[in-house]
Specification:
Elements: E1 9-15, E2 21-31, H1 33-36, E3 47-59, E4 64-76, H2 82-106, H3 118-134, H4 145-151
Antiparallel strand pairs: 1-2, 2-3, 3-4
Length: 168
């Protein structure tokens, strides 16, 4: 994709209500046909989405604003408008952040000392957490999860202390 390529649609969003942070996102959707023509991607990619973020972060110690800029590229298997792409990207990161919050706070993954094959334990923790969610033993609103975990006992007499769950 060349820099002089005109986007099919664009939208700009501004987040001003975040503490010590001002973020401007510009989302542009491009036709993927010229970029993927003659490749194995041609039947699968219909749009290229570019999200450019300009972030100003206030540094209280210096009283100055630090500025950063990054561009993320996404592919879509169907044509999409810029406002829909912006919404989809925001929702994706909301889900991603929620999952990390669950692992980091509720299941204390940050405190884990497992260094060899940690992915296996992460999957086991995720599996255990999903069982708790399905059995309605954990509130999806994570604000009260730690209180609920203190009252829980492992289901079916399973000992899950190897997963570093709070009831070990």
């Amino acid at each position: 994709m060349r820099r002089d390529t005109k986007p099919l649609s664009t939208v700009q969003t501004v987040d001003k209500k975040q503490r010590n942070r001002h973020e401007t996102r510009t989302v542009a959707v491009f036709n993927a046909k010229p970029a993927v023509a003659g490749t194995e991607w041609q039947p699968h990619v219909r749009a290229i989405i570019a999200i450019e973020r300009h972030v100003h972060t206030f540094q209280p110690a210096t009283g100055l604003w630090n500025t950063s800029r990054e561009t993320a590229l996404y592919l879509s298997n169907r044509p999409i408008r810029a406002h829909k792409a912006a919404d989809a990207a925001r929702k994706h990161w909301g889900i991603e952040n929620k999952q990390h919050y669950t692992g980091d706070v509720t299941l204390r993954e940050d405190a884990s000392r497992i260094r060899r094959n940690p992915g296996i334990i992460v999957k086991l923790r995720s599996f255990a957490y999903n069982i708790l969610l399905q059995s309605k033993r954990v509130n999806k609103a994570f604000s009260s999860a730690s209180v609920m975990f203190s009252r829980l006992r492992p289901p079916l007499g399973l000992r899950l202390s190897a997963l570093s769950l709070p009831w070990s």
